Amino acid sequence: MLTSKTPALDLHGEEVAVIYAIVTEFINDNYKMGNKEIVIIHGKSTNILTKEVHKILKENKYVADFALNNWNLGETIIKLK
């Protein structure tokens, strides 16, 4: 369940070329801190960032599951192992 304390990463304005490092570091840091749920805000305009974020999530060993937020398609909710 998302709360106001759920860690979130906002990627608005970031270039696709740099988000791999940003997203990977965010996931790894939250895994080490013991967080089980995080959010990545990528926006919903052209879906370029969404597709790239989901590609990164599929490859990350700490990600158990992820899905778009049903109430805000500009966010992806991630469950960590």
Q: What labels describe this entry?
A:
single chain, alpha+beta, four-stranded mixed β-sheet, Ribosomal Protein S8, Chain: A, domain 1, 81 residues, 30% strand
Structural account:
With 81 residues, the protein is of the alpha+beta class. The protein has a single domain (8-80), classed as Ribosomal Protein S8, Chain: A, domain 1 (2-Layer Sandwich). The protein is built from two helices and four strands. The protein has helices at residues 16-32, 48-59, and strands spanning 8-10, 37-41, 63-69, 72-80. A four-stranded mixed sheet has the order 1-2-4-3, covered by helices on one side. β3 (63-69) and β4 (72-80) form a beta hairpin. It is globular and about 30 Å long. The two termini are 16 Å apart. The mean pLDDT is 94.
Would you summarize the structure shown here?
The chain has 81 residues and is α+β, with helices and mostly antiparallel strands. Helix content is 36%, strand content 30%.
